[in-house]
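Lab notes, practical 5.
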Amino acid sequence: MTDTFDFVVVGGGSGGCAVAGRLSEDPATSVAMLDAGGKNDNWVVTTPGAIILMLSSKLNNWAFDTVPQKGLNGRIGYQPRGKGLGGSSAINAMVYIRGHRADYDHWASLGNTGWSYADVLPYFKRSENNTELDGEYHGKGGPLNVTGLQSDNPVKEMFLQGAREAQFRIRDDFNGAEQEGLGIYQVTQKNGERWSAARGYIHPHMGRRPNLRIETQAHATRIIFEGKRAVAVEYMQGKEKKVLRAKREVILSAGAFQSPQLMMLSGVGDAAALGKHGIASVHHLPGVGQNLQDHPDFVFGFASDAPYFSGLSWGGIGRIIKGIGQYRRERRGPMTSNVAECGGFLKTRPDLDIPDIQLHFCMAMVEDHGRKPRWGTGFSCHVCLLRPASRGSVWLNSADPLAAPAIDPNFFGEDSDVETMVAGFKMTKRLLDAPALRALQQKDMFTADVRTDDDIRGILRARSDTVYHPVGTCKMGTDGDKMAVVDEQHRFGVAQRMMLAGKGGEAEGEAQSGQLQIDGMPVAWRVQQTEKGLLLHLVAARRLQGQWQGARVDGGWQVEVSVLPWRP
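Output from the prediction step:
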């Protein structure tokens, strides 16, 4: 079996599965994909109601911790991340949300060509098989199945009634023309089962496409470079060290924590920081691991004896047993629930153009991500901040590739985040105080004594944590962005710097030339003095892009060239 492929994909999460599945559609293109976890094709993954077994443990879950969070009273946060094929799409709450139109348009406005909402919408539609919605914003026949919930829980209608009573607009489609409002979420399920990215893009083709190789239990430890070009991936499988080589590209899709970790382990990142771990710098790229953004999230919790909720009580256990039977027979009922069945997007101020908070209404009383079970049944409601001003980072704890990275989301590092969450807390409380939802409440578990804004600030810092959406640590950007890690085509290496120096005279037309290497490609250079200044020529087999500047130094001249990787 060959160990050389056109493409080697590192990480079998949502991104890795999609890119490996799509690339391997061409039988002339060979693709290998590595993941440190398993196949994730068993009942624990496919049964939606089993989410709590994974979210709260290390089952198919990296279960990372953060460093102590100053903004959370020094508490250590919890960061579940999917491990195995499908990544976090194999352990998440299956809510199908694309992101707001304005987010993509903002990326494009920063110079990231091809990332506007109009640019990305066709790809969303192509990926989607929506069994309920169609039209301008939805697709049919794609590999990712999207549908409505099969839980048959009447609380969904009570939630909608509460939203109306609290005078919030109702939204039938959060991925359509408008997003603001409350409603019932669509989910990535098929026939009552979880439909992860692996089930959509990889599982149907394993063993059937000879050009697609999937390696599980394969922990990537290092990207191997020849000069500045990534040519192979080193990984551990059991106790054996192995290598897969890439003729065309290494594609890194290991998530917001482990993508920068692997880059740093491979010598790509801040050279000084890498040197402290004895890692030789391959490419100085200080933005690697910076710009971490995550949604801080607060959870309201209520005990309830209404016969609709999951939990640890004799009645709750009985409903689970009954639900398992129904699931086995019909693929319907409470075991198909994603827990977070309802929610939506709200503006904390009327002058805002787009929503700044999101709600998740859950059919169980959840505390500390389900890691602190309580006797009794009830429900929860999450409120999270959509676009935090705070920025965190990821860095190496050690040079050991099997060690967890250091993770600092810097929750509530900016006071503005706290104040927006205070407003979001009040809006959520307004919803929960609506008669239809108030009638379900037996006891307020966490917020009964919260009265003032200072009380809200205090409980936010005492109880908030993540809602599982870290991004930003391999920032996409343009030439002038010093923190950018990749360009708009997601090719890393924004700026290789070379110094060219010579003794050209004052007379127009005098020149000096030579040759250098850029990503293993020979490039001829020539600098010439003209009446308008210095003229630089670069001649290469493929087009280059970048910036340069020159100056007279001690009667001669000096030129600094900053070049991006070429784009075939």
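Observations recorded by the TA: Residues 496-564 form one domain. The chain has 13 helices and 30 strands.
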